[in-house]
Specification:
four-stranded parallel sheet; 306 residues; 14% strand; homodimer; five-stranded parallel sheet
Chain lengths: 306, 306
């Protein structure tokens, strides 16, 4: 399957009605996942804080994990080493475990699980992995879904512009520096990882307003700020809109943003995800490299297991 | 005061015996702070998870904040806009509030507080801001303090090497890309912010093992990976040591690290902080710019309040 179709499949993925079966009670949530499988948990963590949510991405789980913890292990392949480590520890602590996977070792586990299609790359399955969180915790509705579909249409209608931005970026050989914003600064991190995996380009992400306390001191005085291309992955609002405007003035650079879409949190998040997906896809195309290929990661996993 | 003395003052700062007065009971901890005042909270979050810890760095606090929350507001100046916003919200929810500041509006607040010296820049007060967390939650002992002082001695003895690394970095005009590691990946973020504020250089930080799922796909194939200088801010152990070794093989670059110090978590964290402080200080010196100056941040604050 061509990689473009993987990205376009988001239109179908967002219709997924899957939900986690919630335990009778829980005091906190821990989501365990890495890379493309961690993103859904990180976005959910941005959006939901009725109880504490921690994303564990490494060989560790929080000390507080116990029988009052809803522990959600997310691994697209079902074989992620760090996630298998995490679920073993969560079992020892009698956490209430749920699994989100497309196969592998996790699919043989006894815990309640959501199975998603294994057709696409993990990073292209963001809809399948994020929707269960949004559905389960009351962040979706019929109306939100309608607006979400409208927002996606706007982005796909913008495709030629995005393609031109990507081509200019590659031609200029600049390094993407992406600023994330509330309500989901994680989206900038998503763009960064998509630049890494799709475009095979090193990229950097940061957060507004936090960047007003550090990056802003560097940009106007950097050894060569002209070698960076500045992006904003999201729509600034309220005080952060003032901060964004002033940050551009002081840095002396324009920060390129996605088209303004005032459709509410969830549609805006998906619109920004897809903008980044298309941008990084067309950057790969402009470089004449395969956006699907992540042979360095495969090679690393092979060397680790030998 | 010369900025070098601010960095060297860490030797005195770590002897600070300040502690927060703990409430009788609390179920979770929220730390509110930005920039140099957020780092202590982020490091503490890496190290402590007996109860959930969230660091709120922006105009928000978690929905779960209530009378069972220990809410710690950290602002060196005492006037940080986002932190003042956070403490107002925490009061509305009847959280149990503590303050860590050197003055400003926060010093007039009635809540129990720790006052620290306002002599240094916020980022140079990391010892004053981190020690209360370590003291209060049982992460320090006499023996740890002794080892910490030994670890600092090793780093300061290494100063000429660090200076040479900084000079080469500036001469090469490369962009620092710093990998953080457990137990405190935040240290790489600290280096990044120090490059921003001290050296006025854009820098990028990432985390191992997470970078094995994204950055590693980019480094060998980037448009120009030779324009980056790779650092490791910490000492890799166990499975992450294998990952680090293989990551270097696959990327084709050596990742420069701090000298190996096997002195335990807290001493190693401070050693790595000071390595980054000296590296970014000498990078500023090599560029012939003032490491103390952060006029862009001052200008931004002025424009925001006008």
């Amino acid at each position: 399957m061509r990689f473009y179709e993987e990205i376009a499949s988001i239109r179908e993925q967002v219709k997924s009605g899957s939900s986690f079966e919630l335990p009778d009670s829980y005091r906190n949530i821990v989501i365990c996942g890495m890379g493309g499988s961690a993103i859904a948990g990180l976005i959910f963590q941005d959006l939901f804080s009725k109880v504490p949510v921690t994303v564990a991405n490494g060989y560790w789980i929080p000390d507080y994990v116990d029988e009052n913890t809803l522990f959600i292990a997310v691994s697209h392949s079902g074989n992620t080493e760090e996630t298998l480590y995490g679920i073993d520890r969560a079992r020892e602590r009698n956490a209430q475990i749920r699994i989100l996977t497309s196969g592998g070792k996790l699919s043989d586990f006894n815990e309640k699980k959501i199975m998603i299609p294994g057709t696409f790359q993990p990073r292209s399955s963001i809809g399948y992995m994020l929707m269960p969180f949004l559905n389960t915790f009351g962040l979706m509705s019929e109306k939100t879904l309608e607006k979400l579909e409208d927002a996606l249409t706007i982005i796909f209608n913008h495709e030629n512009t995005i393609k031109a931005v990507a081509e200019n970026l590659v031609k200029s050989r600049k390094i993407p520096l992406i600023f994330g914003l509330p309500p989901s600064p994680t989206i900038a991190y998503r763009w960064k990882t998509q630049f890494n995996e799709n475009s095979k380009m090193i990229a950097h992400s940061a957060i507004l307003p936090e960047m007003n306390h550090n990056e802003i001191a560097a940009i106007p005085h950097d050894l060569d700020p002209g070698r960076f291309e500045f992006f904003v992955a999201g729509t600034a609002k309220g005080r952060n809109l003032d901060r964004l405007r002033i940050s551009q003035e002081i840095s002396g650079f324009e920060f390129h943003g996605i088209p303004e879409i005032d459709y509410g949190t969830i549609p805006e998040i998906f619109a920004s995800i897809v903008y980044g997906d298309l941008l990084t896809y067309y950057a790969a195309v402009a470089r004449d490299i395969d956006p699907r290929d992540v042979s360095a990661i495969t090679e690393l996993k092979k060397k680790l297991s030998s």
